[in-house]
Amino acid sequence: MSKPFDYSKWDNIELSDDESDCHPNIEKESWFRMKHRSRVEREENEEADKKKINKEMKRDQLRIDELTARIKKMEQPKAEGDDSDDDLEDVDGMKAEILELNKAQEKRQAKLDHYEKNKKWNVDNLSTVVDEKTIINAGAAAKTFDSSGYALPTAKTTITTGTDSGGSKKETVTAPASSPSPPSSSSSALPQPPPASTTAPTPPTSTATTSGPSPPPTKSGPVSQRESVVSYAEFTELHNDLLEQYCVCTGFSALKHMLIQHGSILLQEHASSYLLLSCLEDEMNGEREKMKTTARNSQVLTNIAELAKSLKRHPGNVIGPFFARVEEPEHYKSFQEGVDIFVNRIIKRAVEKRKEMDAEAEQEVEEVDLSSLPKEERLGPGGLDPIEVFESLPLPLQEAFESREMDALREALMKMKPEDAQYHMKR
Questions:
Q1: What is the torsion angle, in degrees rounded to the nearest 10, for the CA atoms of residue 258, residue 263, residue 269 and residue 275?
Q2: CA distances from 415 to 26, 292, 331, 401, 425 (A)
Q3: Residue range 31-37: average pLDDT?
Q4: Strand ordering across the sheet containing 157-161
Q5: Beta-strand pair 171-175/157-161
Q6: Residue of 131 and 224 predicted with greater confidence
Q7: Mean of the pLDDT values across residues 357-362?
Q8: CA 304 to CA 311: how far, in whole Å?
């Protein structure tokens, strides 16, 4: 039968946070700190005393070994012609010194044994590390963020477009995991990833399915614009609800919680592009306050990406440092100045975008050739034929209408008689 394990060594465990001996008039935290400090000071004194005792024991042991060797040499018979004066040594005195040294050694050893026997166990000495090793993840070196500081997607997706039940032509594009944001226009004051429109940044009609087996390997080289656009559309379709929720999120604590929970999605460059388009859309729709909230949240993503880029770390690892830094008054002031500049750029870009849309609308107006239509379809509400009316106008008035300039029309009417001008304008 094996010997039972001796658990008695655990009977003397010292806890700094033990409340059993705490006086009711003493604050507990102060009591715990005092007990911890007392324990640390006691252990330091004991260790210093142990070192001193071991040093003295080592010194006396060397003296004992020296005296023992000399006595042994003196007890050996002398050879003929040996003129050494070893016989003049006091052998009895050396033996008495050895005896005293051994007694002192016994006392010191007894003291060391007392320390060890009455040792109090605590969290610092209950266990010791006997073996330690570091395991490196084989995929730790895999790059999970791009050079701009944004997170990269973690999986590849296959997008199929142009499909219907009638067997129409199918077009499949494999979006790589590291697809960059859609290219921006160089003539715009702000980057404009597709789809560029004033409506909500919803993706074009497409059917996105995550492929079951691994997709075929894609060709190396830069991602094409087509693949970039489809990747952005797929991203916005899959995560539209989360992105909209982030756009209207208020308060740094709520933003921090969302980024920690959904950082793998919100810290991608596509998410930043979505927020930029949302800012432009809100401003063009007259929702200034919502635009400011979205702009602030967009700048949070931009600042985290810039911080991650400077530190060469994944953006998810700098969420905490960024929010801790922005809580400081000087850094918050700098951050808010950046938000204000971004808001002003959005407002300016919205004005320019509206002018561009108006110009495009004017250019896209199709001119209808009335002469190609039947006379019945050309007749206006009063039963007049526009072609006949136009041909009956005086030549200066016809030229003014063809030029589409108000000044020319006004000048032609001024040259006519008032009654003739009134007659033709009523027609």
A1: -10
A2: 107, 55, 70, 15, 14
A3: 83
A4: 171-175, 157-161, 207-209
A5: antiparallel
A6: 131
A7: 80
A8: 11
What letter represents residue 302's amino acid?
Answer: T
Instruction: Please give the single-letter amino acid code of residue 202.
Output: T
Q: Which two tokens stand for residue 135?
A: 């395991």
Residue with tokens 């929702």: 287
Measured CA to CA in angstroms, residue 276 lies from 19, 131, 203, 206 at distances of 57, 53, 15, 22
Report d(CA 365, CA 410) in Å as an integer: 25
**Residue indicated by tokens 């409340």:** 19
Whether the CB-CB separation of 294 and 306 falls below 8 Å is answered with no
Q: Which two tokens stand for residue 27?
A: 């604050």
Which residue(s) pair with 121 in the sheet? 13
Query: Which residue is associated with the tokens 């539209």?
Result: 240
Say which residue the tokens 């979205």 belong to. 294
**More reliable by pLDDT, 181 or 424:** 424
Q: How far apart are CA 18 and CA 38, in angstroms?
A: 14
φ, ψ at 71 (rounded to 5°): -65, -40
Give the distance from CA 230 to its chain's centroid.
25
pLDDT score of 116: 86
* Residue 199, both tokens: 């409506």
pTM above the 0.70 mark?
Answer: no
Overall average pLDDT of the 27-56 stretch: 88
